[in-house]
């Protein structure tokens, strides 16, 4: 990621993807606070690059919901998962697998 940030800058989409991947790694290790930090960075970059209603923004919202679940913060988890579902419904429609998998 250091090279990506040096070449592209901190707000490039590829840097956001790297933050997302680091968040997933920490989540899988049970390090939910660290995962949340990386997923929040990814979400901010993705919103800046793509706007509020993009598939990558939905992925970040879903990941943040999972982080909050791991931390026992169920109200926040629900908010992020609802946002991810809203975005996916808007992009893909009700019948798409990416929507059905969230229900």
From TrEMBL:
PROSITE patterns recorded: TPR
Keywords: Repeat, TPR repeat
Regions that span the bilayer: none
Positions of TPR repeats: 16-49, 58-91
Species the sequence originates in: Desmophyllum pertusum
Protein name: Kinesin light chain
Entries under Gene3D superfamilies matching the protein: Tetratricopeptide repeat domain
Keyword Oxidoreductase: no
UniProt cross-references to InterPro entries, sorted A to Z: TPR-like_helical_dom_sf, TPR_rpt
Nucleotide-binding is among the record's keywords: no
